[in-house]
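input
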Amino acid sequence: MGFAENLLRGAFEKNVLTYKDRAFCQELVFGVIRWQALLDWLIKQKVHEKTPPLRTRILIRMGLYQMIMMDRVPPYAAVNESVKLAKALGFKTPDVSFVNAVLRAFASDLENTEQLIARIQKEEPSVGYSHPAWLYRRWVARYGLEKTVKLMEWDNIPPPIYARVNNLKVDRDKLLERWDYEKVKWEPFTASWLTNVEFFRIEPSGNPEALGSFKDGWFYIQDPSTALAVMMLEPAPGERILDYCAAPGGKTTLMAQLMKNNGFIRAVEISKRGLRLLAENCTRLGITIVEAGDTPPAEGEMFDRVLIDVPCSNTGVLRRRVEVRWRLSDLELSRLVSTQNKLLEKATRHVKPGGLVVYSTCSLEPEENAGVVNAFLSRHPEFELETLRQLLPFEDRVDGAFVAALRRKAS
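output
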């Protein structure tokens, strides 16, 4: 879960809103964050003098986003509500008038705004598709312009909801029957890496976590890309598994499901909130083989398989981690690579000879992926690369993910 999502969820917990209003608020907040570079560029086309203060600019961004990105909001309503909000926030009269004037100027000339957007997306794609210039340049060098534009378009589209059937509690047909009763629209999702597990894209009429089928643990909300690491780990009933960086539990609970809740999973997570979420998910899904804690296994404690899902740049999931694109930097990438190397070193100490280690990220960046794996293999001849795979949104139509399976030699 991203920083912006955590803040918004905290705000929702303090304020009672209908699901419809919550959905509108979330789309507005996340959309403004995703598109802020383009929105600020458009504002500059109308405001040629000094850049407005941040509070004022944010309010104009919100009104402008509703006009150009949310078809269900009439322009006059976006203007009027923005002005009301400015007054409610205690803006001084000149600032309220400024917000009103700028947004009315946009509202009266939306056709020209659409032309401006088309022009900047062609002339300066990083601004037109609202991504940092340094990241855009990296992607163009690696993927070319056409694929980079598709990737940026992907990042700017709110993600759908995917559900994994929890066959520890229910079979596919029974869940679909209940979804029909709960007025959930569904369609199957298949992919080459998904075996012995079923995913659906769903459209509930309200909050999916309010569904009885969710509360009863009949499904888990999870992007199909996150299942790749577990599929490559191939956990089996009766095995001992170490899961490093386990929260919130999507991979952990999928492992338990494939193990038929038979065996042992040691889940390591340093975040107290993450541990709480992991415990809640295991309880809801009827999983009893997971032992979770914030400390790594004791020296010498060994496992059949190890999954290490490291903290990363999140460049494969920017449509979900909406604020990441604006706080990430080359320096942050270097720091992450250092952390990833250390975590992989720690995790691999606990795999038995002949056992498998799966290293995974939700990053698209080579330094965090093959770079970390190759550096590790150069230091550890007792391991060999068994397989690796990179999922790319513009090819696989799921979030980006990288997974490498490393086998510890038997002797």
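quick obs: The two ends are 41 Å apart (CA to CA).
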